[in-house]
Every structure is written in C-alpha cells, then in structure tokens.
C-alpha cells in the first residue's frame, strides 16, 4: 500500500507546499486548513464558496427577493428620527476613530478662526469632534433627547437646517469673542436646539419656563473658572436657535413653505457673513 503522507496528490491545490488529506465536498480538490470553509457537510474550497454565493445572489434576483442593500435601506426607512440617529452615529464614529488615530480628526475638523479663509468647513465640522468621553456623552445625550423631540415636530430636513445653522452661529460668536482659539464639540448646536425648542413651545401656548431654567443653568456652567468650556459657542447657538425657532413658529402654514425656506437660507447666509466679518475685524 502507498503511504498517503508521501502522495503528491495530498497537497493543497492552492498551496502546493502544504500537505492535507481533506477534500472539498463539492469538487473533491485537496485543501489545507487555511482554505477550508465549513459547510453543512464537510468543508468547501474558496472557488466553490464563491460559486455558491454567486448562484445564491442570482437566485435571489431571479425570484425577485430584495437584496441585502435593499433590506437594509428598508429597515433604515422604518426608523424614527433618522436625522438624529445619523448625526449621533457619525459623531460617535468620528470620536472613536479620533481616539485610535491619536487626534487626527480633531486636527482636521476642529474650529479655529485663524484657519477660516483656507478651511471654512471647520465652522460646521466642529460639531462632530469632542475632547473627551464626558464631553461627547453629555452632548450626544442632549442631542438624543431634544433632537428626537424636535425632529418629530419639524421633520428631518428642518431639524438638520436648525442643527447646522445654530452650529454656524456658535462658530460665528467664537470668531468675534475668542479669535484664534481652538474649539471642539456640538455644544453650540445643542444650545441652539434648546432655544428653538423653547420658542416652539411658547408659540404653541405651552409653559417652557423649566426649559429656560435648564438653558440658564447650563449656560452659567460655561462661565465658571477652570471649566474650559466655550461659552461663546453656547451663546451663539442660542442666538441662532431663537432666530430659527422664530422662523419655524411664524411659517407653520404649509402655504408659507417657500417663505420658510427663504428665511432659513437667509439666516444661514447671515451666520456665514457674520463669521467672515468677525474674521476681518479680529484677525484679517
């Protein structure tokens, strides 16, 4: 009898230097442990696995079954408060990547008015970077609570307009009052959400005094020595939040939608223009 250990046919067809006595259950070729994929019975080689997957995908298309991408898209469409979920997910992902990369994303996205002419995107991207675990936890908790409530009231695109416009106003006031300083965090936009929610609650005839107290207390914390908090961004966000909230409150009627869009665009332009003016006055 021939000794199997010395039979040249007992080597992996993809790695001729590796002996193996295991065969693919579909094609019968010899495969080493690295090339084995467990199947219902035995193992399969890489080529047979690829053929099976291609055949499975073809059968799904032929039967009209939705693709994995389609299923994922449908599940996302069923989510409530999509904009809030996406913002939180992106912010957390960037923070985690920033920790792994040693601060690469902070250096790329944080705001400093000195860089405004060449890197104007920082006035918005500052919303996605945070300095530490407690910083991002507080901001994302506040965004999760108030963001979902506001998105339910306003809809996704109005909520996104509110979030980014108030973020711009936060960067704008930092440009005027703290030129040349590095700023990170979504706090400006978060305070903008507070202010807009207050305006909308008042416009609906509801008591919003407690929310005003919350805004005041959180704002005062930013002025405490040693906190290293950009109160300028908070105040700027509040200004933007009051303006955008006022626009929403006065253009609730669907027939006023063109006016609403125009006023939101104008508010954004004002925030950007004031940021440019702040740079010209303090640095330029």
UniProtKB/TrEMBL annotation:
Its EC number is 3.4.21.-. Its main location: membrane. The chain crosses the membrane at residues 83-111, 123-144, 156-176, 182-200, 207-225, 231-249, 261-281. It comes from the Bacteria. It is a multi-pass membrane protein. Signal peptide: none annotated. Residues 119-249 form the Peptidase S54 rhomboid domain. GO terms for molecular function: peptidase activity. Keywords: Hydrolase, Membrane, Protease, Transmembrane, Transmembrane helix. Pfam families: Rhomboid (PF01694). InterPro entries: Peptidase_S54_rhomboid_dom (IPR022764), Rhomboid-like_sf (IPR035952), Rhomboid_protease_S54 (IPR050925). It is found in: Membrane. GO terms for biological process: proteolysis. The keyword Membrane applies. Belongs to the peptidase S54 family. This is Rhomboid family intramembrane serine protease.
